[in-house]
Design goal:
97 residues; alpha+beta; 2 strands
Length: 97
C-alpha cells in the first residue's frame, strides 16, 4: 500500500520538524520507522519521530525471548542518551538479534 498524498505531506513535514542544525540531533530512527508505518498502513504513534513514543504502540513482545520475535516486529532499545527504535530482521546463530 503506497502512501497517500496526505501521508506523504505529513512525512515531509515530519522530516522538516525532526531536522536540527546539528544532523546528529535528528531522530532518524523514529522518522524512518514512522515513514515505514505510513507506507505500509500499519500505523504510527503520535510524535513517532521520538523512539520512546513507540513503547505505547502495537503489541508488547517479551524482550527476554528474542527467539519469539518475528521479522518486522518493532523494537525499542534503551541506551545512554535516549532510546532507539528499529525493525527486527533476523537472529544470529546463537538466537540473539
Amino acid at each position: 500500500m503506497a502512501m497517500t498524498a496526505a501521508q506523504r505531506k505529513q512525512a515531509d513535514a515530519m522530516l522538516d520538524h525532526g531536522r536540527s542544525t546539528d544532523d546528529s540531533q535528528t531522530s532518524w530512527c523514529g522518522i524512518f520507522r514512522g515513514v515505514i508505518g505510513m507506507e505500509t498502513g500499519t500505523g504510527i504513534p503520535a510524535a513517532h519521530d521520538r523512539a520512546r513514543n513507540w513503547l505505547a504502540w502495537g503489541k508488547v513482545i517479551d524482550h527476554r525471548k528474542p527467539k519469539l520475535w518475528l521479522r518486522g516486529d518493532t523494537l525499542i532499545f534503551f541506551r545512554p542518551g535516549g532510546q532507539h527504535v528499529t525493525l527486527f530482521s533476523t537472529q544470529t546463530h546463537d538466537g540473539t538479534a
